[in-house]
């Protein structure tokens, strides 16, 4: 058997998102209906992975074909039951539920949108396949009007497959064990090149939305210049539907008090805002995270009636970068923040508004100003709060630990970046795109690969710098030459010279200096840290204690202070914000314990120590 068998029935549709992926927001012309809630669920048997397709589980109520259990959406399915087979499942899982539609939607165009499904998804409405998507952390949407029934029950079925291969982003492989002394015939496991648990399922909201038949498909907004007295923005709108020519476009800008401050007509153009309230990140100005609203309205001139309306929040802020740093509205930025995970107890990677809100409260308490979406795009609900609360975000795709660089992988990687930029291009919080984490960037073939990727991202969005998070020695790496900003992960005193905290300051200074001298580019240390079991103490400190975690931080801070003074370093992000789930390993006691908060979001001593530092860093 070959790994491809697992998703033999999936045809990967590249370019599915050439069109817009605006978040479904109700307006005078738009309505939404959530399909979140309890769905019916079953996993496919390990030895009969394709049975659901063969027996058409999507064509009838799921319980007619297989024993079902209840499964909350959104959530990962892994930690919901007592069953280790479900936790560790590899391959197809099936979800199904029913729904009714309001009659008023009959004359509208109806779409369904998934915030994210990890990794492959196939979707059927009333037994008809309507779309499929590959890539676990980004939204996809499809129009389903013609497949819907009004006045009758509708059925939706989703098949989800979490198998990772050498050509998925991130990569993984299915390994068959042929040693019959140790493994029964046909035994296989999923292996992957990263340490976070590969949670699976319908992870983010499922939303039905109704829009007029001629509709606003996409909006792009960019700040082109700012001064104290004038902010200039450029907007453009894409329309969808059959009668586009009958409509004209009105663009209006409202301030946070809902006052109209500027307007324009047409599909695209420049709009000037007098005395703008700029969008500032935390700690750089008294005004933080100021958002305007761009209201786009269609108008049917012949009939003199209004058409579709969409309201998009946006910030007026301008990014520049050069060899010395990244600048927001002309002021240089120092990133003080975190590498993180979307990882919630029981929900796994499923959207959890409680954990999400608590995390922002903790990040504000500790006086951080930034985070990286390590190692995949986070939910739109989470990103909305970054915009509102003025956090700087390094927005990363799930290209973690890449170790071969062929054209098929390049294609998948580019598709992920297109989808990420399409989703997040209008967010003021996003100040840098990260094209991946810790690739084998010492391999010569990766040079052409990353050159191609960086050029693509610059083409997709020229308004933000591009980075890649590196962990190979600067003398061997071939990717940094293409980047605007260099990000590095370094675990001195932990993965190397374990326990030798006296070497950390020296090694970190040498390391960052080497990168800067080779490339003359600003450097962010995006990961450093030590595992610490909450409550474990020794003196003198040894690894795994809270005491050693703090000593390691202290030694890194000494290096950061000097490097900042030298003008090399523009940020420090500790690994990790909170402890998180990993696959089972004898060196990971239930997870990665490098959090400054526990997985329950309680502070380790490190959190208090970090808070003192972040409070004094400006
Ligand atoms: C780094 C990875 C990160 C891991 C960390 C660790 O980027 O995802 O969690 O190591 O091992 O190399 O703690």
From TrEMBL:
Annotated keywords: Glycosidase, Hydrolase, Lysosome, Signal
EC number: 3.2.1.31
Ranges of residues in domain Glycoside hydrolase family 2 immunoglobulin-like beta-sandwich: 214-317
UniProt cross-references to InterPro entries, sorted A to Z: Beta-gal/glucu_dom_sf, Galactose-bd-like_sf, GH, Glyco_hydro_2, Glyco_hydro_2_AS, Glyco_hydro_2_cat, Glyco_hydro_2_CS, Glyco_hydro_2_N
One cellular component term from this protein's GO annotations in UniProt: extracellular space
Enzyme's top EC category: hydrolase
Signal peptide region: 1-18
Record domain Glycoside hydrolase family 2 catalytic: where: 325-617
Keyword Hydrolase tagged: yes
SUPFAM superfamilies: (Trans)glycosidases, beta-Galactosidase/glucuronidase domain, Galactose-binding domain-like
UniProt entry tagged with the keyword Signal: yes
GO molecular function, one term: carbohydrate binding
Function: Plays an important role in the degradation of dermatan and keratan sulfates.
Matching NCBIfam families: PRK10150.1 (NF007538)
Family statement drawn from the similarity comment of this UniProt entry: Belongs to the glycosyl hydrolase 2 family.
Identification of the protein by name: Beta-glucuronidase
């Amino acid at each position: 058997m070959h790994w491809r068998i697992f998703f033999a029935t999936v045809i990967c549709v590249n370019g599915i998102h050439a069109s817009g992926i605006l978040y479904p927001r109700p307006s005078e012309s738009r309505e939404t209906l959530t399909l979140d809630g309890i769905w019916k669920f079953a996993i496919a048997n390990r030895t009969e992975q394709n049975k659901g397709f063969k027996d058409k589980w999507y064509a009838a109520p799921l319980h007619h074909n297989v024993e079902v259990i209840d499964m909350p959406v959104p959530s990962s399915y892994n930690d919901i039951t007592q069953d280790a087979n479900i936790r560790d499942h590899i391959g197809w899982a099936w979800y199904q539920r029913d729904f009714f539609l309001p009659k008023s939607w009959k004359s509208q165009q109806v779409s369904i949108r998934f915030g994210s499904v990890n990794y492959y998804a196939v979707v059927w409405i009333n037994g008809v396949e309507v779309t499929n998507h590959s890539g676990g952390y980004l939204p996809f949407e499809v129009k389903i009007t013609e497949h819907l029934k009004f006045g009758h029950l509708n059925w939706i079925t989703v098949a989800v497959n979490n198998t990772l291969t050498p050509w998925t982003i991130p990569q993984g492989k299915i390994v068959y064990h042929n040693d019959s002394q140790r493994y029964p015939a046909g035994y296989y496991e999923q292996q992957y090149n990263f340490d976070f648990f590969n949670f699976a399922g319908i992870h983010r909201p499922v939303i039905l939305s109704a829009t007029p038949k001629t509709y606003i498909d996409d909006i792009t907004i960019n700040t082109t210049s700012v001064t104290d007295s004038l902010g200039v923005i450029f907007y453009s709108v894409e329309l969808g539907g059959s009668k586009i020519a009958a409509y004209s476009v009105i663009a209006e800008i409202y301030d946070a008090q809902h006052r109209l401050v500027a307007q324009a007509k047409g599909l695209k153009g420049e709009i000037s805002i007098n005395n703008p309230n700029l969008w500032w990140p935390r700690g750089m100005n008294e005004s933080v995270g100021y958002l305007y609203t761009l209201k786009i309205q269609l108008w049917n001139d012949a009939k003199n009636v209004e058409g579709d309306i969409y309201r998009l929040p946006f910030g007026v802020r301008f990014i520049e970068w050069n060899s010395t740093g990244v600048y927001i509205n002309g002021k240089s930025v120092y990133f003080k923040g975190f590498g993180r995970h979307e990882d919630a107890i029981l929900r796994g990677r499923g959207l959890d508004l409680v954990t999400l809100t608590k995390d922002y409260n903790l990040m504000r308490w500790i006086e951080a100003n930034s985070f990286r979406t390590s190692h995949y795009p986070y939910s739109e609900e989470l990103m909305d709060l970054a915009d509102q609360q003025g956090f700087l975000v390094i927005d990363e795709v799930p290209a973690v630990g890449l170790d071969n660089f062929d054209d098929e992988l390049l294609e998948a990687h580019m598709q992920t970046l297109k989808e990420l930029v399409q989703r997040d291009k209008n967010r003021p919080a996003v100040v840098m795109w990260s094209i991946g984490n810790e690739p084998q960037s010492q391999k010569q073939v990766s040079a052409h690969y990353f050159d191609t990727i960086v050029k693509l991202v610059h083409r997709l969005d020229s308004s933000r710098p591009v980075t890649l998070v590196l962990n190979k020695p600067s003398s061997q790496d071939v990717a940094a030459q293409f980047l605007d900003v260099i990000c590095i992960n370094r675990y001195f005193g932990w993965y190397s010279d374990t326990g030798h905290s006296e070497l950390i300051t020296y090694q970190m200074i040498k390391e960052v200096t080497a990168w800067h001298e080779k490339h003359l580019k600003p450097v962010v240390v995006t990961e450093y840290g030590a595992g610490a079991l909450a409550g474990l103490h020794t003196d003198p400190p040894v690894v795994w204690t809270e005491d050693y975690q703090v000593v390691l931080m202290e030694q890194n801070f000494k290096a950061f202070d000097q490097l900042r003074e030298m003008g090399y370093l523009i940020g420090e992000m500790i690994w990790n914000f909170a402890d998180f789930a990993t696959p089972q390993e004898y060196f990971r006691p239930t997870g990665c314990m490098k959090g400054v908060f526990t997985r329950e979001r309680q502070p380790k001593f490190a959190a208090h120590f970090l808070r003192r530092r972040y409070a004094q860093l400006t």
